[in-house]
Amino acid sequence: MPVTVFGSANADLVFPVESLPAPGHTVLGGPWRALPGGKGANQAVAAARDGAAVRFAGAVGRDPMASIALSALRAAGADLSAVAERDAPTGAACICVDSAGRNQIAVSLGANALARAAQVPPLVPGEVVLMQMEVPPDENAALIRRARAEGALPVLNLAPAAPMEPGALRALHLLIANEHEAAWLAAALGCPASAAGLRAALGVTVAVTLGEAGAEAAGEGGHWRVSAFPARAVDTTGAGDAWCGVLAAALSRGVSLEAAMRRASAAAALSCTRPGAAEAMPMAAETEVLLGVG
Predict the structure, then answer these.
(1) Is residue 31 part of a domain?
(2) What does the pLDDT look like over 231-241, one tens digit per residue?
(3) Is-catalytic flag, 241?
(4) pTM, rounded to two decimals
């Protein structure tokens, strides 16, 4: 089955620094780079490099930054026929990465704020539809409901955490959040900040990524926990996106959620070992070597 990703595409300006700047503090860094990014584009590239047939729907501006934002998608062979050009700047992010691989990110949504669910062509039953929160939440909600109506599998990565219509959350096939996003949502719902707690509150399958502690999920079939793969971190910017994109690709092939989580964790570890976001996404063969099946 194919994977459709509805989300953001950015041009990332990446600044390597020894330490992350504090408020009011200026730090000097090494040579900066302009790289493709945006959570939607990153996850689409991760899914495509893992072997999925990927269609990306989003919006860019009519400016030179658009070619940067879409470059990794093009190189990965994603279908870009559902990308719209808007009269707004292409989305951009300023990313500082310190010597330990930690990051500090500021994002300007730009044209991403003008992405519309209606850009997504008709879906097919069983198709995975992957979304994030760098496009308007109302558009995500509309696409979630449409995906359900057309028999597709809507998956939402609640990143960055932002209010979302509860009815749309309850219509998901799968909700993905990191531990901070899970805590934010749990506070809003008045439930424990665990996969099981969120599952009980929403009635849908929930996966929570836990950084070096791995990931957990709770669904109708039970509760699962997978360990993280050890990695020498160079840049953690795209790790969460690698996890989501590869998970979606694995699910599109009919892999069980537990096995998909393990594959996603391996891909996320590999993405941390190289700089950048979209360009750090591993190929399927690399992930399989780490899993011991290559």
Answers:
(1) no
(2) 888 878 789 99
(3) yes
(4) 0.93
